[in-house]
Amino acid sequence: MGRPRTTSDEAILEATARAIGRHGPQGLTLAAVAREAGLAPATLVQRFGSKRGLLLAFAAHATQTAGLSFERAREEHGSPLAALRAALVHLSEGVATPEELAGSLGFLQIDLTDPEFRAHAAEHARRVRDEIAGLLAEAVSAGELAGGAEPGPLARAVQVAYNGALILWGLTGEGPLPAAMREALDQTLRPYLAG
């Protein structure tokens, strides 16, 4: 009988996220993730097969858990718009410096050039957009947004504003990222606010 796992795959993938923030996906090594997770590199090879296998598991996990920030925000906030702001700020919490953003953008390069990674990234983007649209529809029903606001197209605009805010903040470094995120969201939604 084999030894029981003392470190979950979830914990390893969290360590992978931290290591990507420091090294980017291109500079990432199994040794760096293993150090971050407190494991031997051989353990990662045994579980994921290779660096590519680990990164694909990381991408799949990100897609599977895309809705968690939105679920948590719904539970913590009575207002759909407050929940939307909180969820989008939470999604960006893994980025504290422009250098960490560079690691995420390095992953985007892989997403755009490798079909397996692109499939995960596209599904992640769809899930996030659907979560945004759901909260916007709730905001219309709650009277926070004008009745003429169309949740589908507006969700796309909010998603574009979110991604644009990340890039602009990374380039300018102006203020804290959560404030930049809230400002971009507020500017996008302002024309649709009720009353």
Short synopsis of the structure:
Helix content is 76%, strand content 0%.
Strand and helix map with partners:
Layout: H1 9-27, H2 30-37, H3 41-48, H4 51-64, H5 68-76, H6 80-91, H7 98-113, H8 115-141, H9 151-172, H10 177-189
Can you characterise this structure?
This protein is mainly α. The protein has two domains: 9-54, Orthogonal Bundle (Arc Repressor Mutant, subunit A); 66-192, Tetracycline Repressor, domain 2 (Orthogonal Bundle). It is 76% helix and 0% strand. It has helices spanning 9-27, 30-37, 41-48, 51-64, 68-76, 80-91, 98-113, 115-141, 151-172, 177-189. Helix 1 (9-27) crosses helix 4 (51-64) and helix 2 (30-37) crosses helix 3 (41-48). The longest helix has 27 residues, at 115-141. The radius of gyration is 18 Å and the shape is elongated. This is TetR/AcrR family transcriptional regulator. Residues 6-66 form the HTH tetR-type domain. Pfam families: TetR_C_6 (PF13977), TetR_N (PF00440). Residues 29-48 bind DNA.
